[in-house]
Amino acid sequence: MNKKEVASELNLTAIRNIPEINPGDDLSQIINGCLTDQSISLKDKDVLIIAQKIISKSEDRFIDLKTVDPSEKAIEVSKKTDKDPRLVELILQESCEIIRAEKGILVVEHKLGHILANAGIDRSNTARPDNEVLLLPIDPDKSARKIKQYFEDLYQIKIGVLITDSIGRAWRLGTTGHALGSSGLKTLIDLRNNEFDRDGRLLQTTIIGVADQIASASTLLMGESSEGTPAVIMRGLDLCDDSDTVKNLIRPAEEDLFR
């Protein structure tokens, strides 16, 4: 993407009336039915943004805490963080490294590479008892590819699919949209040594995390609590591209000065 390709207008449309998603549900068919009911359809170069939670629900990533036997390490960490040792055990199982462990806080590097609290494990809006929690998808990129293929075959178009979650960030208060998985969408735009600023200086450090920008924009329509709109269409960007995925957004550990 260069200066000539910068969009002058973007359109975001929330997909309404998506029902409660249960394990085994065909999410693509459900979303398409909602599109039909809303009298809208996907067009070429659209980006379909979907909240991680309904992906995890459809893929049955529920775990009953009653079935979890905490290890000695989980018990030790639970005392330091004041968290349920069964939840801590799941967090450890979903992670490859603890980044910070303090009272009420457990930040880890998830097996997918993302740095986030509690390995993304959640209880909110699961429509399940309090003893059941929801894990992130095993392979969000694969989930995105499956959905992308369904709609491209159905509409005979090319689209991008982005799976998002809400996370906190270093330096800042509050959560924001975060790209978790993708397919067919440019996620990182490297302008270094390719573009000039308005004064003619060659850019040396500018890398744009465009997938996270899209995720944040879509969260304005999805909401963060009880809104019930977990899917959004973004139109106006020309970013359909298979050259990278969300994995390209993850900063290498040796460059992460905040570990």
Structure description:
It is a single chain. The chain has 6 helices and 12 strands. It is of the alpha+beta class and 259 residues long. The protein has 2 domains: 11-59 and 139-251, 60s Ribosomal Protein L30, Chain: A (2-Layer Sandwich), CATH 3.30.1330; 63-132, CofE-like fold, CATH 3.90.1660.10. A 5-stranded mixed β-sheet has the order 1-12-2-8-9.
Main CATH class of the largest domain: Alpha Beta
Any low-confidence stretches, pLDDT <50, length ≥5? Answer: none
* Strand composition percent: 15-25%
Distance between the termini: 32 Å
Q: What is the CATH homology-level superfamily of the largest domain?
A: CofE-like
Domains, number = 2
Strand order of the largest sheet: 1-12-2-8-9
Strand segment tally: 12
CATH architecture of the largest domain: 2-Layer Sandwich
The H-and-E topology, N to C, reads as: EHEHEHHEEEEHEEEEHE
Helix content: 25-40%
**Rg over alpha carbons:** 19 Å
State mean pLDDT (0 to 100 scale). Answer: 91
Largest sheet: 5 strands, mixed
